[in-house]
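Run log // design_07
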């Protein structure tokens, strides 16, 4: 009961801040990165019941959550990937780069379609899989890995069997995320709040997970 009351309280506080446009996209990126220092604990508390794979029974999903999303190993690529970070970016921004690296290392994609993400995230994917080929904007080729920021309808054109779709800032494009979840090609999705991850694999049963990342 106490957990539910506190979760509701912090949810209302964060909702108020969002309505006040404190985290609005038009704010300078460095200001938004700094405000994330406050935002993350609120989001974490609201999703505390979904941490570290609790309640995940699928072997594939559990191994992905514990072995990729929550992986705490210090990989060789982290140091060069993070040389440009300022102190306020060593939370969410660093975590996103490391996640991009681990996802690429896990999927080992031959091709990547990306749109709207910064070059550093694309570089993190390259660190994760050497020889990664990034598709050009006019290409309609299916991609092993798709990484976009916000809603990008063109991303769905690149989905094929085995594709992994990563959507940054998924909490700001819920209608687009629902389209991905409802797509018949998509079987398993993970909602991390900051990031959405979906798999197009026919060998997996349809399932959607909320993860406290």
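design_07 sequence
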């Amino acid at each position: 009961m106490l957990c539910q009351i506190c979760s509701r309280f912090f949810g209302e506080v964060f909702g108020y801040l969002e309505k006040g446009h404190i985290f609005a996209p038009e704010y300078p990126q460095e200001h938004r990165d700094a405000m994330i220092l406050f935002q993350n604990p609120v989001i974490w508390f609201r999703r505390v019941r979904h941490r570290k794979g609790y309640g995940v029974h699928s072997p594939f999903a559990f191994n992905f959550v514990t072995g990729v999303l929550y992986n705490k190993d210090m990989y060789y690529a982290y140091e060069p990937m993070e040389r440009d970070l300022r102190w306020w970016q060593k939370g969410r921004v660093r975590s996103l780069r490391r996640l991009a690296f681990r996802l690429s290392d896990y999927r080992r994609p031959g091709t990547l379609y990306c749109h709207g993400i910064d070059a550093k995230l694309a570089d993190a994917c390259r660190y994760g899989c050497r020889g990664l080929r990034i598709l050009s904007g006019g290409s309609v080729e299916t991609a092993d890995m798709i990484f976009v920021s916000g809603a990008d309808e063109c991303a769905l054109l690149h989905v094929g069997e085995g594709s992994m779709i990563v959507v940054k800032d998924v909490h700001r494009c819920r209608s687009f995320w629902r389209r991905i979840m409802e797509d018949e090609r998509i079987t398993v999705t993970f909602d991390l709040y900051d990031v959405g991850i979906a798999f197009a694999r026919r060998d997996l049963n349809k399932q959607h997970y909320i993860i406290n990342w």
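Residues 2-19 form the longest helix (18 residues).
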